[in-house]
Amino acid sequence: MSFLGQHNHVALTTEADVLQSLGAATVASSAVAVSATNETAPLDANEMTRQHCWPKFFSNHGQQYPAHATRGAAIHQKLVQMLLTDSLASAPTEIGN
Fold first, then answer.
1. Which of 35-44, 60-69, 75-84 is predicted most confidently?
2. How many domains does the chain have?
3. Residues 27, 88: contact at Cβ < 8 Å?
4. The PE domain covers which part of the protein (predicted)?
5. Is position 64 within any domain?
6. Using CA atoms, how far apart are residues 80 and 28, in angstroms rounded to an integer?
7. What does the pLDDT read at residue 71?
8. Where are the alpha helices (DSSP H) in the chain?
C-alpha cells in the first residue's frame, strides 16, 4: 500500500497532469518575470535613494529570483513525478481489488 493509502490511480494521474500544466504555466510566468526584472532601469541616484537600502534590496531580489524560480520548478516536477510513480505502482493492486 502506498503512503497515500487507498486511492484511484486514474485520479492521481489526472491530478498529476493538472499539476504538470500548472507547473508549465508557472515556469513560463517566471521566464517573463526574469526578463522584466533584468530589464528594469536602475533608480535615480539622488540623495534620497542613496540614503535608503531599497535599491540594493530590489537589486538583490531580482538577482536571486531566477535561482528560486528554478528550485521551485524542480520541486514541483518531483511532486508530479512522485504522483505519477505512485499511481502506476498502485494500478495492479487497484485492478486486483
1. 75-84
2. 1
3. no
4. 11-89
5. yes
6. 17
7. 92
8. 9-39, 47-51, 54-96
Residue 81 has pLDDT above 50, yes or no: yes
Is residue 23 situated within a structural domain?
Answer: yes
Kindly report the CATH number assigned to the domain that includes residue 67: 1.10.287
* C-alpha separations of 81 from 21, 55, 74, 88 in Å: 13, 39, 10, 11
Q: Provide the pLDDT for residue 45.
A: 58
Mean pLDDT of 21-42: 75
DSSP three-state, residue 18 = helix
Neighbouring CB atoms inside 10 A of 80's CB total: 19
Whole-prediction pTM: 0.54
Q: How many residues does the chain have?
A: 97
